[in-house]
## 1
Amino acid sequence: MATSTRILVSLIPALLMGPVVAFALPPLEQLETRIELSPAVQLAERAYESTRDSLSAGRIGLGVSAFGSVGYAHNHDIIDPLHSWTYNQGVAGGGLSVPVLGSRLQLEDSLSEQQVQLLQLDARRELQRRELLARLRKAYGDYWQGQRLELLARNYLQDEATLERVVALRTRAGLLLDADRLELLSGFSLARRDEAAGGADREVALGLMRELTAQDLDGGIAVRPLVPAACVRNLDASDDWADSDPELAGLRKVVSLRETSPRDSALYPVQSSVQLGYQTREDMPTGQHGGSTVLSWSFQVPVEYGSQRRLLARAAAAQLSRARLEYEIRRQDLQQQRRELIVRAAVLEQTAQFAATRLAAADAAVEERNLRAVKLEGDVAEQLQRARMQHYGAAKALVEADRAMVYWYADWARFETTPCQPAPGKAGPQLYSSDDVTAARAATTARAASLRTAAQAPNPGFVQAAAAVAANRALYLWRSAEWLNFAGTALGERKFAEMHSAGIARLLISLDAEQVRRAIAEPSPLVRAVRSTHEHGLRVELLLGDPGWIRPEQRGRLLAIIDGLKSVPFDGLHLDLEPEQIDPSADKLPALLGLLEQTLAAASAASPWPLALSIHPRDLEVPVGESSFAQVLLRLRVSPTIMVYVANPERAVAIAEPLLGHYPQLSFSVALSLEKSLGPQESLWSYPEDERRRRIARVETRLAASNFSGLTLQLEDGWGDASGLARLATGE
């Protein structure tokens, strides 16, 4: 396997844990749902509940209170100087009391500080969750980056024994200075240090994730975390975000509370209450009973009412001014932090793109020196090793750029209110997910193919042009059960290496009815498979095909699937809806294509991903209303894949080339068949491998127009036949 393919493709979790390990670390978004179980979150929740209940208990005192009294008296009354009367008397009474005027206002004021504390604890609950979310994201990023660093170092160390022998021989022969020998070997010491550092980072991060999620996590495979900064780049500097910020919302409530302070009322100093009661008396010697009903209103006004009133008003004004100033200072501080994060996102994106491009360039340099090492003699071994050292440094720079972006994502948790969703018709919400690396790898694949064929083919210019287009091939994957379970297995490593060798950049993944049902109920396995495929540098599009969805009465089933899977980070939605499967009659085709137009419009409105369609070439020229169906696709922004299932490359070009020229604004892919079940007139499978490669390269080179997006290859089992696909496409 070529060095470039080995180095880039080897950055897969399977090598980290060994081929016998098939489990994986839960994805970041799944771990984030367990933040609520963290002891710190539970502590903040208990503090809030305690203060809330205390405040509710205090508010009860503002309502009606019951009072009562029971007494016994031994009386000795003097009637006149010569007579007295001794008797016993029982007294009992009760009633209702309501605080009014200043008494009620003073009770409300005594609860205001408790209300402020409750508002602060309420904001602190959410801020605590976001703080822990940031720590979890950083820990997950550390784990993922440590995993990648270990893989990178292990891959680099594979050549240590071979290089040591080579440099030792060249040093003894006087062809290499000892200083140069030490320089060439120093990279292995660095790689061993990086391997140890990556393992240590993973252990520390795993312990922190266990603490934050209250879950006994195993040290399995981590998949690339989504970094949804694409939405952040679309934000402006407005203050709309402040409306939903928990801290600022709490401070605004404090301001509102201070604005309605009871101390501003002129009745605040007046203590008053209203009582309604009944009292009964019993004279024990005579057995007589008596009672009375009492309604009373009492009040008390301080002598220095005016002075107290002024001081209370000044205190209330000072509290209000402080609350407003605190809100404004904090709002400006958070606004500045948020602006800095938005600006930093753009810088980090450019840094990541530069690192990916630099890695692709270093990879091409290693590939070129590998080829020279086969053909030439001299100091090519030292040049190759220096290229590998530069490649190792470039790969580490990409790892560091990734870490910086994940840390940015963690810091963004402070301002994150809801998960960021991409706009309809756009790709997934990554700051840089697989797209940048995919483009870099595609360029590298094209470069490697051109170098390889230039050394072997009699006409290198022709093959180089074909290699440039071959880097963007797509593959129908109608059977996806094995693909769904590839993560963390040696099989996945091998299959994706074969696809890279074949120039495959996109997978069109089909799900059967049972797989769709399971994915809608529990999308985590599908999300993990898509993201792991992104890790390997391939884009993933959802492939759905049922001609019945063309009809209005069945269209809802398609929309339900799209809605159920919209959380999966697919790169596109590809529909295979052939009207001829409903009715092959030529006179029915325009009407069926009209219904298909309606289905595509509904799917485009519902889909969060770009839309593509597999279609027969002749359908593009069929009139639908006042335009052709190709113009309908252009208006709906649907990219067609025309199914040119002919084995003769000249015939395939004759079918596709006029369409590309007639509709230059449409981006076309051309589907060729490699199916074993079709005959030699339709499928390339029955031809010798050299002839297959020649015919594929012929089609790709002849169709190298600006609106030709590459070939899409059709096999019965794209995953199972990946090894044959790699052989027929590259000749390895």
## 2
Amino acid sequence: MPTNSFGAASKLRAGNIDYRIFRLNSLEEKGVGNVASLPFTTKVLLENLLRQEDGRRVTAADIEYVAHAAAGSTSKEISFMPARVLLQDFTGVPCVVDMAAMRDALAAMGADARLANPLLPVDLVIDHSVQVDRYGTADAFEFNALLEFQRNRERYILLRWGQTAFQNFRVVPPDTGIVHQVNLEYLASAVFRRKAAQGWEAYPDTVVGTDSHTTMVNGLGVVGWGVGGIEAEACMLGQPISMLLPPVVGFKLHGRMPEGCTATDLVLTITQILRKKGVVGKFVEFYGQGLSALSVADRATVGNMAPEYGATVGFFPIDAEALEYLRFTNRDASLVELVEAYAKEQGLFRTDQTPDPVYLENVDLDLATITPSMAGPKRPQDRVNLGDVKKNFNDAFGGAHNPVEINMNSHPSTIDNGSIVIAAITSCTNTSNPSVMLAAGLLAKKAVERGLKPKPWVKTSLAPGSKVVSDYYREAGLMPYLEALNFHLVGYGCTTCIGNSGPLPDAVAAAVQTENLAVVAVLSGNRNFEGRINALVKANYLASPPLVVAYALAGRIDIDLTSEPLGEDSAGGPVYLRDIWPSDEEVRKTVRASIRSEMFQHEYEKAFEGDSNWNSLPVPSGDIYVWDARSTYIKRPPYFDNMVDPEKAIQDLHAMRVLALLGDSITTDHISPAGSIAKDSPAGRYLIEQGVQPRDFNSYGARRGNHEVMVRGTLANVRLRNQLAPGTEGGWTRHLPDGEQMFIYDASMRYQEEGIPLVILAGKEYGSGSSRDWAAKGVLLLGVKAVIAESFERIHRTNLVGMGVLPLQFIEGESARSLKLTGHELFSVRGVREALEGSRRARVLAVDEAGKETTFDVHVRVDTPPEVEYYRFGGILPYVLRQIAGAPVGA
């Protein structure tokens, strides 16, 4: 029970219900801080502390500090308990697998297995498993959906078991929508209400999710961000998140966007600005009168890409527009009434007259300066003006031509460097936004009317974020035009944006591989890292949905759409992008005429029921999961085997070999297994040994519940460049000291047989990108004890600690290069215990092959006392297991 030191517990009446709330202004009444001037996000954290105050994890001193901290300080650790947890299936399946394994471990310890049960509400949305195997046909959706169930049957049976075995756990079945769009349109409430023993309670709707783009719901006034699967599991089991109070950067928006610009152009501009500024580990909060010119869908587009600009959140406060969105998406009227009453009572409601909060730093953007933009060819922060895309590609890939004749459906065609082979309307970032989606439909209509057709070598796809999109496309009469350009519905899921683009047509793939062509994908997604979209595609550009359609018509990226024609009309005349681009008024009129509140009611009233494919799956019974030894999808993980004695766990590290020497911007896509599985890779060889044919490999994401597959795919991205194996791309290294070149997995197994621990050396922004827990789990299972990097992305650093891998950071100005480290040295880390007891500094000794010693200091990036405890127990999962089992230390 909260101790309520500040008398904050109070009543709020909304509708005919009295809710128990914790009033923020009670602090000012007692002379504690100027709460009214705090950023909105800091107020939400402060309310969380008021409500969770227990004298142990949250003290009165913690609350006073935050109330006085204005825009935040990284020097103070706070405890945060979200209202709920959000999972998608790629990261959610491992969570369920780990929970099932924890139940096994509890039973083995003589404890009640049911103690491993979510204590917070948990929603899992299955959206990451559908692939674009068939496209450009009327039956593409049905074909891909059926194939999805065939491939993922074992995974879905596990989730069906979880539905019945766990309390507080709901599953949104496949083919419903993308997790973040379902969250925005249905699951999120802006203010959370629950029936407790003493009556109804109300507090801000806060969420952590196992997808970094959980931030999309920031557009609705919900504080939420992505965490690793390991951290999410701890929250599910009642463990709060320990975090440093984040600094808050205010981003002021004013003016209006020019005619012809979209929310995609806006978010790519913001991403470029904030990446340049540097906001990793910070909250970004948008304010100013420009917010009133942005719909919730536009705001959600900006919030979605917070991981791309590096922020923990990209937050928009609750205001009249948010209330209208809740009403329009068919939220209960009593909820909307509560949201308005609560937000206004707590100073969490924004109007154009609201005084600007006090921020640590401020950024300013005039919306009138936004221009049509794309981002690429390799990073989302690399914004390019539309007119400069041609030059951008040529500068990156040389601009040389190498035309290759191919046969597409009995028609000769020619592809070349710069040919667009994938054009995908995909990803929650944009498919949640009716304006850009309907703009794509209107552009398609004008293109068809002018006689334009997509190029035959372009793999086109339409993967909306929810079924509501299909409803309003049909209502607007635009679906036939999209289909005429081969943008048929392929599925309701993330598809291309997460690497589920499916295979390229055989003729295209053969030409690309034979001639090593630099071909291109254009997608309305949020990620375009190397090797992510398709292993054969070297250049990837992010674009708004209408631009995706336009580039499918052009068929090439090395074209200036601002001055060169897309193609010829039926009379042979040139057709320019400006000829078919819909006006803003056309888009607004179509939005008003085609989207109705009833669509949201219809599509979400049976959100948890699923179709016949889902409901025909067998549902295992019992509190303990029965593992199928023959399964190649689901295996009991080893995290609870041979648990360490916490009293002896913190030791110095000795004589480690380097498994990989890596550069800057190594993303979790580079580290974690993702995309397709090559038959000649360690994972492919393993599956073949288990009797799985290559056609049935599925993707790494689908096999995240099998650690044997995943460890073999860790650090195996086709674009990974390990400096220990110069001249190679992919999962290669050299076993030392003999220097034999081999797969990273094979080298790891040899090192483990030899009893040699491992270390990874890296540059800046190690672990940026998606919150992939397997980027930490995989390196642990490879035998890696520590990672030494110039800097870490927030989520991945937390995940490393959560798996018992020590993150070490070079002192500012030092790096592997400046210290002339080659990766052939033996590394030892001294002073680990002292570092974790408070100094946060350790000493590294590197001894090269000639016996020369190099010593340097590192920051030990175990940032908070709870993280020290997690590391001491060998990771967060063993720690939680011992806590819920009541096992004594060392048991």
## 3
Amino acid sequence: MTMATAGGPYRVPKRHGGTRAFALALAMHCVLFAFLWVGIRWNNDPTGVDAEIWDVTTQMAAPKMQEPEPEPEPEPEPVRPPPVAPPPPPEVVKPLPKEPDIALQKKKEKEKKEAEEKQKIAEQKKKLDDEKKRLAEQEKKDKAEQDKAKKQAELKEKEKLAKARAAELQRITGQAAAGSTGTAAKSTAPRLDDGYKAAIVTRIRSFLNYPGDEDVGAVYTITQLPSGEVMGVRRVKSSGVPAYDAAIESAIRNASPLPKRKDGTVDREITATFKLKEMRQ
């Protein structure tokens, strides 16, 4: 509120009486109250209204200027303690199992171990069975291949013998045709010497495999090629012992090719007696 001072443009008149001043002051307050009451009713605005009242009769001293209060010193920032690591969680101690639980656990472990051992044994047995089966199949396959190769070799041998027989027959037929000229007797029917026959018997004896010692003998006719290979064996007289007859026939075939004469010729057919005692000498 602005106050009139002694040196200002306005001068406070001297008081002549208190009644007049009191009446003026009361009139001013009534006017102010009416003004405020009308303004509030008219505007209905809750905003407050500031009013300055000038009292020209009273001179009030100016208030002393208050010195600003010193600002409080900032409080020092409290020192924060270093972070403390949380304590480790307490170790959980498992309660010891009771006696029945221990026995049950041991029983389960034993059963598990036995089951694992049985499984291992079953796996090993299966591996062995598979290996045996594989070997059996391989052996069967090898045997089939061997039989096939043997049959092929026998077929080739038969074909070879058939060709040789055909060639021999052709040669004999040709010699027979030539014999009509009187020149084939010496070449086709040479005299059978004892040395040549003995050489043949000696070779056949080296292939004889017979364990008996009976006094028996058998007569066989041997047909051979010019190369000495045996084409056929025909039994003329049996020894009476089938095992000895079979042994002599097998020895003749295994002895092929038979020895030749010194001049390289052979007899197409040879008939010989094979006595067991002589074959043993």
